[in-house]
Design a protein that fits this description.
alpha/beta, 302 residues, 45% helix, elongated, single chain
């Protein structure tokens, strides 16, 4: 290619052939020939050398320090995606850059959920409705463990989690009483049709506190998506990666996880805020409710 450029410019400079003849001889356009001639007049033979098509180095390339931090965070939280890592730790790059770095280093974990039709809903005020459920798993030293707890529908705040070795009505009542110890109570609780929740004992205890129980359709957990999402986060970020020596050990780690989940772990559905920042914000309280003044007094004393 370099020989063609030199010969065509030489023929054009010496006037041996016309531009049209040279273009036809070397299968180039007259415009290209004039461009080569101008480059030769300005820079000599160096002006005829082909320019590199390699993309220029970006001025905003990610530093090695940021890249190492992203990889460390991904290894520490393998189930987290690029968006969550970027917003949780305020990384100085876009989430797309985080995604590219993770993918380039073969740390990308794709979990494609089965698409299911669902209708999203969210209450306007906190403590308007809680979602309750029981989640079971196994600890090697203790056997089956049943986790019963409640999550606020508006803020995704985990109100209380209690772990038991049985899945009975007494345990469900005990979990509800522990949840109400924070001096905050919901107007309604959305539950599945588990026997521990449909029992007369649990219904009577909820009625005593003026709480209305709402039961979802059997075998239809999509209506309780917020509490199911908490269970998935607990399983991926705690149960799968830690070895629990006993039930008491798990209870201690569960308390720590709930603290992180409520006060540190940001959520995309909340505009990358923490559940606690929504749950304790007075603008989300129902001011028409009789419990409003009690709640504000409780928060002011903390």
């Amino acid at each position: 290619m370099m020989d063609i450029r030199v010969k065509s410019v030489f023929l054009y400079q010496e006037g041996i052939k016309t531009a049209k003849e040279i273009s036809s001889l070397y299968s180039i356009s007259e415009r290209t020939l004039r461009r080569w001639n101008n480059a030769y007049q300005k820079r000599g033979i160096d002006g005829l050398k082909p320019k590199s098509t390699r993309p220029l180095k970006s001025k905003h390339c990610t530093s090695n320090r940021v890249m190492r931090r992203i990889l460390r965070l991904k290894q520490k939280y393998p189930s987290w995606g690029a968006r969550r890592l970027k917003h949780q730790f305020n990384l100085p790059v876009s989430w797309r850059t985080v995604h590219r770095i993770i993918k380039r280093n073969s740390l990308l974990v794709r979990i494609k959920a089965k698409p299911q039709p669902c209708k999203r809903f969210q209450r306007k005020h906190v403590d308007s409705m809680w979602q309750g459920d029981t989640f079971q798993f196994r600890i090697k030293s203790a056997g089956k463990v049943y986790l019963t707890g409640f999550t606020d529908d508006r803020s995704r705040f985990r109100v209380r989690s209690k772990a038991y070795l049985r899945k009975g009505k007494e345990e469900a009542v005990n979990a509800l009483r522990w949840a109400l110890k924070a001096k905050r109570k919901p107007r309604q609780i959305y539950l599945d049709n588990g026997r521990q929740f449909t029992s007369k004992l649990f219904k009577a205890d909820a009625a005593k506190h003026g709480i209305k129980l709402i039961f979802g359709k059997p075998y239809n957990p999509r209506g309780r998506g917020k509490i199911e999402r908490y269970h998935r986060a607990l399983y991926q970020e705690e149960i799968c990666i830690k070895h629990f020596k006993s039930l008491s050990h798990f209870r201690r780690e569960l308390w720590k996880f709930d603290r992180r989940y409520n006060y540190w772990r940001k959520q995309e559905a909340l505009g990358w805020l923490t559940p606690a920042s929504i749950y304790n914000d007075q603008k989300y309280f129902n001011k028409g409710c009789g419990e409003y003044k009690k709640r504000t007094n409780v928060l002011s004393t903390k």
